[in-house]
Amino acid sequence: MIHYTRADIDQMDKIFRLNLINSCTGFKSANLLGTKSTNGAPNVAVFSSITHLGSNPPLIGFVLRPTTVPRDTYRNIKETGFFTVNHIHSAIVEDAHHTSAKYPTEVSEFSQTQLEEEYLEDFYAPYIKGAKIRLGCKFLNEYEIKENNTLLLVSQIEHVYVSDENIQQEDGWLKLQHADTVTINGLDGYAKTELIERFPYARPKKI
Q1: Model-wide pTM > 0.85
Q2: Residue 108 contacts residue 42 (beta carbons within 8 Å)
Q3: Cα–Cα distance, 10 to 13 (Å, whole number)
Q4: Residue 1, helix vs strand vs coil
Q5: Beta-carbon neighbour count of residue 55 at 10 Å?
Q6: Backbone phi, then psi, for 133, in 5-degree steps?
Q7: What backbone torsions phi and psi does residue 118 show, to the nearest 5 degrees?
Q8: Along the 207 residues of the chain, how does pLDDT read in single tens digits?
């Protein structure tokens, strides 16, 4: 059995520690966030921290690393108030991952990949053309996580786009396997998923 104490973790090589801690909590969501600056420059970046916060109102949250260095996604969201969330599917994983490269602000990741921007319903931020599930979101608030100087951004879902009818079931549930939605293992591992079973609402058993 492998066992690490907190002291062991603190003494690890930086890359080894990054890989271990980023993968030990399990699979994460794999999404591309689309934003656009106030001067019209589009930006796209991969994020693995987006999570559901509530359904009524429809809220999501995601974590941003410390803003001690330029963060184009953060700046665009704060200045315009809008962004999109686009599920990554298997055909675009390489380009999606490449958006994590640190390009200068004036260089759009769209120009360095095969990803294409698309605008829907006059929404300010760009969607990813061909993404099977896409959300248009409005920024609401941010909360500082003092323990590591990161930020939790809370936003509201304004639009939901589902590309194919067979993805959504009669009760509203999205069968992500039909959308070829992938997940992220750690920092750089992309994986497909397979549904095991869907269970009814769990209620206490009668004793």
Answers
A1: yes
A2: yes
A3: 9
A4: coil
A5: 8
A6: -130, 125
A7: -145, 140
A8: 999 999 999 999 999 999 999 999 999 999 999 999 999 999 999 999 999 999 999 999 999 987 655 589 999 999 999 999 999 999 999 999 999 998 888 889 999 999 999 999 999 999 999 999 999 999 999 999 999 999 999 999 999 999 999 999 999 999 999 999 999 999 999 999 899 999 988 899 887
